[in-house]
Design brief:
The complex is a heterodimer. Chain A contains nine helices and ten strands. By secondary structure, chain A is α/β, with parallel strands linked by helices. A six-stranded mixed beta sheet of chain A has the order 6-7-8-3-9-10, with helices on both faces. In chain A, strands 2-1-4-5 form a four-stranded antiparallel beta sheet, covered by helices on one side. In chain A, helix 3 packs across helix 4, helix 3 runs parallel beside helix 5 and helix 4 crosses helix 5. The longest helix of chain A is centred in the middle third of the chain and has 18 residues. Chain B is mainly alpha-helical. Chain B has a single domain, classed as ABC transporter involved in vitamin B12 uptake, BtuC (Orthogonal Bundle). Chain B is about 75% helix and about 0% strand. A two-stranded antiparallel sheet of chain B has the order 1-2. In chain B, a hairpin with a 4-residue loop joins strand 1 and strand 2. In chain B, helix 3 packs across helix 12, helix 4 packs across helix 11 and helix 8 packs antiparallel against helix 11. Chain B is globular. Classes of the chains: A alpha/beta, B mainly alpha. Chains A and B meet through helix 2 and helix 3 of A and helix 1, helix 9, helix 10 and helix 11 of B. Bound molecules: adenosine-5'-triphosphate and magnesium ion. Adenosine-5'-triphosphate binds next to strand 2 and helix 1 of chain A. The site of adenosine-5'-triphosphate (ATP) has 12 residues of chain A, from strand 2 and helix 1.
Amino acid sequence: MTLLRVENASKKFGDLVAVDGVSMTVEPGELRAVIGPNGAGKTTFFNLISGFLTPSSGRIVFDGEDVTKLLPARRVWRGMARTFQITEVFPELTARENLRIAVEVASGYRLKTWLSRDADGEVRARVVDLLDMSGLVDKADRLVGELAHGDQRATEIMMALALRPRLLLLDEPTAGMGDKETYDITQLIRKLHKNQNLTIVLIEHDMRVVFHLADRIMVLAEGAMLAEGTPQEIAANEAVQTAYLGKAA
Amino acid sequence: MTAAVDKAAPVAANRERARSLAMLAAIWGVLALAPFWMPYLGGYTALGTRVLVLGLGAMAVNFLLGFTGVLSFGHAAWFGLGAYGCGLFLKFIAHSTPLSIVAGTLLGGVMGAILGALIVRRRGVYFAMVTIAFGQVFYYIAFQWSSLTGGDDGLRGFQRAPLDLGFTTVDILYNSTAFYYFVLICFAAAAAVMGFILRSPFGRTMLAIRENERRARFLGIPIELHIWIVFTLSCFFMAFAGSLYALVNNFADPLGLHYSQSGNFVIMAVLGGMRKFWGPLLGAAVFVVLQDYVSSLTVNWQFFIGLLFVVVVLFFPRGLLGFFQQRVQS
Ligand SMILES: Nc1ncnc2c1ncn2[C@@H]1O[C@H](COP(=O)(O)OP(=O)(O)OP(=O)(O)O)[C@@H](O)[C@H]1O
Ligand SMILES: [Mg+2]
């Protein structure tokens, strides 16, 4: 069954139509990339899906349920997790504490004032797993605000992952990263997708990353969908070349 | 490299734990022995009692401000309601100290819970402004309703009752040392509850909201609900402190509800260090002692408090406690 269906979604900011009647369906296990020039409306599109903004018109259907009007936290509870274009973490807490909060919330402990020894042990173990997976082990007890940009972004991705999402939305995961960091994050995303069969939608400017990872690509330009298809189809699409790839190269 | 870090981390953590245990022992030692050492420094026991009660109030404000990042500028309302609730209970209903504390705590806490529900969607300055408004509403009620509250003159005509422990009664009215220990036990109980909550998963969601509301929301934390719970808890702690304050003075007065009193609590928290659990207590101690000492020399004691506040904010952004801890560490 289709995991995410966006139906004809639009978002207006005053006169500006940031997202203009965009539809998209994402199947379970798919890795979808959303690309487009600056200001194309990619982040706004993500905001509609995740509930940061409500669409001016159109519907968001997640796992068969209309979630268009649901608050962000409720979409998270149903299995949607996201990261942001500008890193959003808890800077004055350590990486371990950042992940611990995410794990506790995901385990349904957020209102608890006490954890049993077993529950506490499970939470700690899960945090260590996530640290291992991301290569943050050495830096686990440093404040996230003092870590390198790439490590902060990795922390944010691991926090989203701690929620055990069924759909992971990543807004430019490699933004502002060097080659090494970009490679590491790309490998991490690839691993999550291949090994855990996680469904991922990501916005990305780095075409190497996009063509390396994506099963299918959607191209936005000036709020509207310009093209949609496999990486080969998109690479061969002339409209895309003139609107985007040509300019970027 | 990795191995070194792995070994270094537990050592650092142990040292950290030892340091915080030492600090806890020092704090409780100083508080428990206060009636014995204070006279030598020119203090008197009632001054210590005031520090505990105002310190608890500042810690309650800081529960919301320092750990959740939400600034209330009207928290004196719940403090004052606690004081009036306690005093009115003693005056008109029953001559029982514990029950009067329960009455005051419930009055302030429940009002805080109800009004808090109306404002949790406001943020930052707007939130602070609405809380000031609430505080002033209660101030004017206390001021105007003189048949019940004594109006401008304050609520008089009640006294704290002796504690009936079953096998004996403890005079806390005339024996100021006994009263100090009674307040210290109340203070310890409230501080323990606060500390317990802060170390729990719920407490960590408070930090999450303080650190980054957007991230917290997109982890699936319903921000408004959590802020409301913290606000309500904070109001209960505040009203509890206010009840004790009525017992300290055998008096409740409308100025206790006024926004300038709310401001004093915020000043104590910031002065001592609002990221630190014990910061507000230190802030309250400095505030109360300075007020007591300087006001005997000049009526302009507030000028000196203001000056100290500015110096701390400019040069010791982590507050006095944060500054001292840094000195000890280096
Ligand atoms: N909250 C807002 N209010 C008003 N205008 C907005 C808002 N958010 C986005 N916009 C506008 O909507 C358009 C699309 O912005 P969006 O951030 O979605 O683009 P993007 O494709 O993510 O761009 P980039 O690649 O630079 O991240 C831009 O013109 C932007 O200025
Ligand atoms: Mg964007």
